Amino acid sequence: MGTRRRWLWRVPWIAALCLALALIGPGLTGTAAAGEKLVVWWNKGYYPEEDAAMQKIVKEFEAKQKVEVDLSFTAQEDLLKKITAALIARRVPDVAFCFFNDWQVIPKYGWNDQLADVSDLIKELRPRYNEKMLEVAYVFNNKTKKRAYYGIPIEAQTMHIHYWRDMLKEVGMEDDPAKIPMKWDEYWGYWKKAQDALRKKDPAKYGKLYGIGMTMSTRASDTLYNFDMALLSFNGELLDKGGKVVADQPKNREAIINTLKWFGELFTSGYVPPDATNWSDGDNNAGFHNKSIVMTPNPSQSIPASQFFNKDDPQKTNYFDNMATIEWPAGPDGKKARYLSAVKTVIIPKDSKNQKLAKDFVRFVLEPARFLEYVKAANGRWYPAFTDVAKDPFWRAGHRGPKGQKDPHVPVATTIYQDRDNKAFEHWKHPANSQVYDENIWGKAMARIAIDKWPPEKAADEAIDRMKAIFAGYK
Amino acid sequence: MPPFAFLVRTTREERMVRLLHNRTFHGFMFSAPLLALFGAFVIYPMAFGIYYALDRDSYRALFGDPTFRQTVWNTIWYVGVAVNVKLFLALLLSGILDYPYRWIRVLSALFLIPWAIPALPGILSFRWMLNSQWGIFNHLLTKFGLPSVPWLARHDTALGAIIVFHIWKYLPFWTIIFLAGRRAIPHELYEAAAIDGAQPVQNFRFVTFPLLRNLYLICTLLSMVFTLGDFTVPWLLAGGAPGDSTHVLATLAYRYTFHMGRLEWGMATFAVALPVTLFFIFLLLRWVKI
Prior knowledge:
The complex is a heterodimer. By secondary structure, chain A is an alpha/beta fold.
């Protein structure tokens, strides 16, 4: 009995010890392991080939460096939350690549001094860079009070417009991209005309079809591309070179009003699906693939790339024959379109214990032949930030069709990157601008006009005031 | 041995022996794992959240954000309308399901389906049904010559859709609760009322409802607490769109924290709702006399 009682009072101690070990143990092992292996969080690719290419690179790196790499792939929305939580909790990976880093991570966490300064690596890679894509990582650190490179840009996406050639053919309209009018009003009118003609020809089939798949929702980052592209067409600027708000200057305010007015009229004209104010980023893609819209502006080449891998279309008829990619039209003043690129960027958190190894890993990934293989695995969805990689004939020629057809998509994107006036999105200029994008205040302004029936002037002023208030919050 | 007898001044060894044989100490040690878990997963996160929520600048930023002001109104509408309509309907439906017919049992089983199916496929299906181009609702409207409605592209219809889905999804659960409450009412009371010539409406007014009143109020408070924190339905159905006009506090806090990386704003958003939630919980505890 006495022995049993002695055991009885030992039980709580043992239980408490077990619990303590259970709670503390993983932390201890995590800390120990952090010195031995490189933790890499990588954005899950849209296609299995992208992930396979990265896995191959990691295996080669492990073999060369004799280290273990803990590589994990996460979808972009989830990865952003994971990186945000990690940076807040200061339990970070050694390398993180998320498609949202350039916009939502680098400006804010560079400002907070939570990202490693990689200026040395950038200096080394600089001769290879497309200079226009480099500035996206050159952000301000509020602790050191100076700018430095807090990320390594690797690939970019820009604005493309895709349309169904076969639909235009069906109603006898010109489907060759070279023959579609590129003046502002005529261009947008062309897709309206296509909607009218298709609905008239076959009301049962096309009664609910829309000509223009223009995303105008606060849920979608596509809205920001659309707004910023249109604003450039109307010659408006939101920030000056130093990152100061100039949206309230009369010329820019007028451009913003004209841009919002244009979006509002487009929406209420009946040529944009009513749900466009509720679309997420994938909804215009879905609408295009199921042919409920004739055309859609879309950043990145995800729409044609998806058709390229369409298993139901082994001859790739949709990719090579039925659809095409076309440029953004000239502005209302007749000036050639100016473009914006979102440059996708790798970060190394400042709290990483393996910063040297992390830089070695990034350097290894970005070696020309290796990076070319990786970026090509995305089927032209991304354009490389390095001039040597971009020299590969693939970017100018694209794929060759089974019947010898020319690629109607990848070369158009390459023309936009190489031959057009193209600059990076301006998140990097000021972290507050990153919040302006996070809040999607221009999508909100569009909704004010399209749904709440506000006049464009009122919607523009609300958005400008909000933008100024956000900037005022960063001191 | 009286509790805390081990505190009496004795030698160190004696104190240790007494401590290890003390029943209160044993009780404390046995509950220590639970207390540790409670501390780690309830107290610590709450304290962490409150610490972040104490930043005054966050409240200045929140109240300066027009989306936040709209969100507060949406939350009041969502909780006020969804909870009250749902519970009122549940109370009525529980009366129908209380009839002793076999087909009612089949109906009861079918009626539980919305509650039993996972929220995600239910919400996505509902979203598709509301699609203004291809959704079944607009298809039916146009069949009858009515204009189609952009359900999720207008603030009022989008918020209405969120409320309707919430009611559809959770109505069966509360109906079953009320059904159980009805069945706990002694049958003799209805027999006595019948002798006095009571009609069904009078039965409900003078027998059923007075005896269900406490249950109804407790369910209302519980449902308010649940609905105030509901994230799934508003987020998956509308995601704040159109124009960030359909956020509720839970979705806005999520947006601040994970989309904008402003943890302190997210915590402050929850903190705004905290006094209301605590008030409901306080009422609830008083009601059930815990």
